[in-house]
Amino acid sequence: MLEMRPVLAEAARGAPGDEAGAPGAVVLQEHAVHSLIQVSAWPQTQERVATQLADSLGVDRAPGPGRAVTTSGATIMRIHPLSWWLLDADDPSLDPAQWMTTDLGTFLDLGHSRARVALSGPDSSTLLNRFLAIDLRPSVFPIGAVATGAFHHVSVLLHRREQDFHLYMPRGFAVSLFELLAETAAQFGSQVLPSGTH
Amino acid sequence: MSGYRLDSGGRVDRDHPLPFRWDSQALTGLAGDTLASALLANGVSVVGRSFKYHRPRGVTSAGVEEGGAIVTLNSGPWAEPNAKATTVEMYKGLEAFGQNAWPSVRFDLGEVNGLFGRFFSAGFYYKTFMGPLRGTRAWMFYEYFIRRAAGMGTAPRAADPDDYETAHAFCDVLVIGSGPAGLEAALTAADSGLDVLLVEQDFELGGDLLTGDPLIGDQPAGDWLRTRTAALQTHERIRIMRRTTAFGLYDNCVAGLVERVTDHLPGAPAHLPRQRFWVVRPRRVILASGALERAFCFGDNDRPGVMTASAAAAYVGRYGVAPGRRALVATNNDSGYRCAALLARNGIATTVLEARAEAGTAGARLQELGVELRLGTAPLQALGRTGLTGVRTARARGAAWHADQQIECDVLAVSGGWSPVVNLLSHRGVRPVYDATLAAFLPGEIREPIHVCGSAAGIWDAGDCVRSGQSAAAAAARALGFDASLVAMPPAGGWPTPIRPLWEVRDEIGGVLGKSFVDPQHDVTSEDVRQAHREGFVSVEHLKRYTTLGMATDQGKVGNVIGLALMAEASGSSMAETGTTTFRPPYTPVALGALSGRSAGSHWRPTRITPMHRWHQRQGARMTEAGLWLRPWYYPRGDEDLEAAYRREMQIVRERVGLVDVSTLGKIAVQGPDAAVFLNRVYVNGFLKLPVGKARYGVMLRDDGVVMDDGTTWRLSDTDYFMTTTTANAAAVLAWLEQLLETRWPDLLVRVTSVTEQWAGFAVAGPRSREVLAALADDIDLSDTGCPFMAVRQGLLQGVPCRIARLSFSGELAYEVYVPSGFGEALAEVLWATVEPQGGVLYGTEALGALRIEKGHVAGAELDGRTTLDDLGMGRMASTTKPFIGSVLRHRAGLADPNRPRLVGIVPVEPGQRLRNGALLFADQNVSGHGIGWISSVTYSHECAGHIGLGFIAGGLASWMDRTAVLSDPVRGDCFAVRVVAPCFVDPQGERLHA
């Protein structure tokens, strides 16, 4: 079987960072995307699809605009008025193919289209604001917030989680953008970890 | 002028000396100095030479308005010309040089220009275009010398070696300026619960308080500043940025800032940028940007030793430097007395020249300090050349001034009034309003969420400035829904004795002794302003451009108001009637590097690579740019150049098999019950009946009937399609499809999503391509019957999901195979492991292009935004039974004209002649004008044993088949006969395609 290759393995190896591996103010690491499925509704079926998504994940409501919900099973993000991203849903029962029909909407596998970088540490939001014009003050962008922004003219998506941020970048641009992140992170003291499968 | 360091006083650290170099001379400054204060402390008087006349210039201010001490910092690629010595923070090892002078600013041969000063008045440059030499080439000769003679510093030609970066910040309130008003505003706002960002262009907070004003209310200014600063620095809701200039205000209160991160540090620390460009998005702005002191004009007012009174006070009070030993303070308002008191308290013999008839209480206090006060007196002319030696004074008699006597001095501190810094408001279209009582332009009506306080609002008293800061902050807090007590805004003003507006001191017959400079940086004199008016430049906008008043790096901070006043005087208008020009960003010069941030070098734009990029590099590929993508261009073997490589690659594809990375093609998932209907409306040919498991080549037009893009669309299921586009148009096509669905056909149930990044793909092309893929596909029948031409198959390839379509761009038996991108590199490895033993080849975009040209397939060079279906020979492809985008307008007479240039093939008549892209085609040897056609694509062809091309010629094949035309390339000098042929040079019957 063909082997899957991480997007940023070589970029991470060549990135500036504390060689000793000591804890830095910013830690960068590629987190492999296990799965990413775009689930979309039609205008007249938006509520039904939202309900179906919430039921399948066992939450009260599917996330509203700019929000994500994370359970042990998966993460759902609202990325568009009529679309959600279903991430890392390893359980086959969460597969939208189980319940989606064309009169309800569509689903699409985008699991290989994005590279995902986790940024953690006290200066991670400062680092992100070197590139993203998104207000990351916790009162404005709390845990569970999701926003799309432009990183060096490339559309990216940012998700604040409990302990870190996840930054989703189009695969083709990921190396170029990661290099910018790593170079800029060095001023805060940084650590670039090898690509992982979190 | 003989400046010197005082034994005590100021905020400099006398225990921390800092060696630096000025014009290669080793000197010493102190921590807390600026370059200007350090030069003054070392007795340096001449720091620059003026723009046109090369007059010696010294330090004239203590801030961003500086017009005399303009220097070059550093050398080599780090050289920075036109730096203001008054804003350069001293550090160990600083290097600075005089500029616009030879051999030095101290002795400059360019000063001879002054002898011809009368010929260099306003507009002299434009006048060189007129007169008896008009229309001759004489101007081309002396223009060279004019350019050499004028100018300021010289920028280095080497690339900027420093790093910069950009950053974004958000806050509730942005407070600009840290004088008493700004500090109080920041604290009040933060105490009200707002998130505050305080920016200060200086390296210390305090603004005017740094000079050491005696009191704010009952509290010594130094104590007040200390306690406020401590409170600010520990407040959890306040972020402070020093060394940060707010250079512009933009829509929605967005502010542009430049932070000087390492300019003041000897040896930049690793990983830090030199400067940082901030885009700040506050909800409200509090402008506490203060005011800048003006002087007034008089004869030779540019001599070293002449400076503003606030500057003299700052050098004494903040930097512990005496600007001279014998001082005159000339003033028309109360603020000049503060300077006189400071000078006197520090042992400098001081005389005040008071332009008004009385001085009020401030004058009485001065006399207690032993300061001589001369009422109704003003300077008429400064004496000296490289340093001030004295002043010729004038006495007021009524409205006129009469020459009086000479007084010896080495420093003349002038206070002519204050100009609130309203530049940032001007960026927002707020026109300042002239207040005749204060002789100042005050902020006009503001309709945006901006609050002005302190001296920026024309408030002069320090205690009133503090209250105005509270008022502005409270207003901002209440506007944002926070609780804050209303505080009344103090009125503008605050001098016990009114100012006497004074713009220029001329003698009793209105004459000026020497030159009276209005804008020292551009050598604009008061006579230039009057001359401009005489010559008919009566608008303030024309005055500016004709004289260049206000167009130097200070953007008129020093001279604009004076120039306006003189113009008003000349025209008999009021200041209000004369109006102002518009301040535009940046407030102070901004390095272009800062605006670029990290978008420099390899990151000047984002780079896009395919999943197989590194694998291609390991195979020795030379890459080329295709928009933002990097694609393999060719794979040289040995010492092959491009020509040899692509010829080899294309030949092997035709004879055996080749692999080319096609991951960059645009790929769009078109999903939904109405997907077929949608595609049918977008493409010119039919898609409604495309069977599942088949692909179809499609062309889409713009609304105006011109071809927009082409590609293949694969039907994966009843409601699922996989559309491919050209690499270049992928984003444009997606945006177009989205626009159609959202605005034109919102009733259609269709979702379009880019999947360009989801799939990595190779084209496998050549007679052996079937064998290659069949060896790797797990469960897909790739036989001719199992996978006929244009079939689409989905299955597994080496255990991973794949999509394979039998398509051909090259004209050979070929397939496009896609796997999810994460498997792309592994796919490359297994494909190559199968292709290489067969004598196959990796090929790049050069060979890819060569192959398609041989086959007559159009690409970007032909789909150039001007060509129609009929131009491309595809008219019959268009459906005649269904409407589609462009179906109506493509039949316009101009587009349907059979005599339009149409696609043809071109070969040289003489074998061995080389065709080139862009060459023009003519009907005969009468080669002139734009011809009747052009060559769009060329390549060498093994099959044709020579160069071939695709192109367009009026009338196309119908008029030109097998006829001879003339190719003319005026750029490269070619001109020879060519023959027009059918555009398909290889396998026109398509036997190889259908093998």
Question: Secondary-structure blueprint of this entry?
Answer:
The complex is a heterodimer of chains A (198) and B (995).
Chain A: H1 9-13, E1 26-31, E2 36-41, H2 46-57, E3 68-70, E4 75-80, E5 83-87, E6 105-109, E7 114-120, H3 124-128, E8 146-151, E9 154-160, E10 165-170, H4 171-185, E11 190-196
Parallel strand pairs in A: 1-11
Antiparallel strand pairs in A: 1-7, 2-5, 2-6, 3-4, 4-5, 7-10, 8-9, 9-10
Chain B: E1 4-5, E2 13-22, E3 25-31, H1 35-41, E4 48-49, E5 56-57, E6 70-73, E7 80-84, E8 95-97, H2 124-127, H3 138-149, E9 164-176, H4 180-191, E10 196-199, E11 215-216, E12 219-220, H5 221-234, E13 238-241, E14 244-249, E15 255-260, E16 275-287, E17 291-294, E18 306-308, H6 309-317, E19 321-322, E20 326-331, H7 336-345, E21 349-354, H8 360-368, E22 372-374, E23 377-384, E24 388-397, E25 400-408, E26 411-415, E27 417-420, H9 423-427, E28 433-435, E29 440-442, E30 450-452, H10 462-479, E31 517-519, E32 524-525, H11 526-534, H12 540-547, H13 560-571, H14 575-578, H15 592-596, H16 613-618, E33 622-626, E34 629-634, H17 642-655, E35 658-661, E36 666-671, H18 675-682, E37 695-701, E38 707-717, E39 720-725, H19 730-744, E40 751-754, E41 759-765, H20 769-774, E42 792-797, E43 800-805, E44 814-820, H21 824-835, E45 841-842, H22 845-855, H23 893-896, E46 901-908, E47 920-922, E48 933-941, E49 946-954, H24 956-960, E50 964-969, E51 974-981
Parallel strand pairs in B: 2-8, 9-10, 9-16, 10-13, 16-30, 18-26, 20-21, 20-26, 21-22, 35-45
Antiparallel strand pairs in B: 1-19, 2-3, 4-5, 6-7, 6-8, 11-12, 14-15, 15-16, 17-27, 23-24, 24-25, 28-29, 31-32, 33-34, 35-41, 36-39, 36-40, 37-38, 38-39, 41-44, 42-43, 43-44, 46-49, 46-51, 47-48, 47-50, 48-49, 50-51
Helix pairs in contact in B: 4-5, 4-10, 6-7, 11-13, 17-22
